[in-house]
Amino acid sequence: MKKLKPHDDYSLSRVPSDGKLPTWKVMVVRLGCLSCLPVLMLGTTLGYSLTFWQGVCALFFGSVLLQIVGWAIGNIAAREGLATSLACRWAGFGNLGSSLIGVVIALSTIGWFGIQNSIFATGLFQTTGLLTFEIWSVITGLVLTILVMYGFKFLSLTANIALPLFVIGTLYALVEILAKNNLADLVNSSIPGPAISMGTAITMVMGSFITGAVLTPDLTRFVRTGKDVFWICLVSTFVGELGFGMIGILMSHAAKSADLNVIMLSFSGVFGTLMVIFSTIKSNNLNLYSASLGILNFFDAAIKIRLNRGTVTLLAGIIGTVLSMVGVLSFFTNFLIVLGEAITPIAGIMAVDYYVLKRSRNVLDISSAKGTLPDKVETWNPVAIIAWALGFIAGIFSTDFGIPAINSLVVGALTYLVIMRLSVTFFSKKRLEL
């Protein structure tokens, strides 16, 4: 019997042709990440402060924007076979810049791993009444960590099991709701709680999942074409986020509450609650997976040390588990939200560099034919760092104007494009090539 070993998963290399996977396998993993507890929670929150149709409009508009971001960045990965933090080296940021991106991604995703692990452990403790929250935190954290250590194959296996269970639990709750309530009455009912503006609602939709959109390459590097990426993003975003978000809105209007645990218990009992809790597995696996890729890229780019992905995953999982167990992360939620906003402008800068300026396309194409990484990479690009910082600041301080996540992305992208074009005019055309 062949012994299973932690898989490197092409963390610091291109995914080769024989490492590519069927589109449906990657689609199930990404669909699993968007068919989850946070989506239902987003839906119930929107439903509590909006009418049904207002909530649907906010979800639809936010989903369209996320689809665009996910496809643009995910297509780079399909073409080049590179994860987000690694692709940054040849898409604007350079070697040291990409190492900084890796650290930001790792801090953000480890933090969210810990928070979602706390939710997972709390749900099991409250539902079963067994053991303690701390013991459940250790059990759930280590189980998820071990799964992620074995790479995308186990992410796919987990999604294939957890996704159907989540769908069954959610649909069961929906059937119970419709059995006790008239659908037309729910759709046309008034706002259950205090109202919020449409701009705020769209910001909530974008803010909740923009980080996942930017990290799309961590998954789509395993498919072959941009067409595959388009369908993966389309199905996962509109079926996952829009579909289950709409169910959340209906739940909120039926229960007149924004508390998902209360809603699920009232309509589907312990079974539905457990299914929602276990949905955390799918999205939290990807948090840890992206964290391990970011850490590996940092050590490789900044310190020239190549670590084992299994070991890195284990250490990151232990850190997240310990933080969730001792309750420290409850004090850092706002920090993690701000940190997540720092990831948004990365997408705009990468897209401008890869699709518009095409600074590295020549070296990428040459190395792609050999199945290797380019042997040429700039140490760092100060323009990308400046644009990233300005985009980050724009997202933080534009809460009263437009959609902060989009403001951040657009400011980062335009700043990068303008300064790079000006540098060509006043300095040298070599700024636009490696």
Feature tags:
18 helices, disordered N terminus, 434 residues, Hydantoin permease, mainly alpha
Tell me what the structure shows.
The chain has 434 residues and is mostly helical. It has a single domain (18-333), classed as Hydantoin permease, CATH 1.10.4160.10. The chain is 76% helix and 0% strand. The protein is built from 18 helices and no strands. The protein has helices at 23-34, 37-49, 52-80, 84-87, 94-128, 133-149, 152-180, 183-187, 198-214, 217-220, 226-255, 260-278, 280-303, 309-326, 333-357, 361-370, 382-397, 404-426. Helix 2 runs antiparallel to helix 9, helix 3 (52-80) packs antiparallel against helix 11 (226-255) and helix 9 crosses helix 15 (333-357). The longest helix is centred in the N-terminal third of the chain and has 35 residues, at 94-128. It is globular. Residues 1-5 have low confidence and may be disordered.
Helix-strand layout with pairing:
Layout: H1 23-34, H2 37-49, H3 52-80, H4 84-87, H5 94-128, H6 133-149, H7 152-180, H8 183-187, H9 198-214, H10 217-220, H11 226-255, H12 260-278, H13 280-303, H14 309-326, H15 333-357, H16 361-370, H17 382-397, H18 404-426
Helix pairs in contact: 1-7, 1-11, 1-13, 2-9, 2-11, 3-9, 3-11, 3-15, 5-6, 5-12, 5-13, 5-14, 5-15, 6-13, 6-14, 7-11, 7-12, 7-13, 9-15, 11-12, 13-14, 15-17, 15-18, 17-18
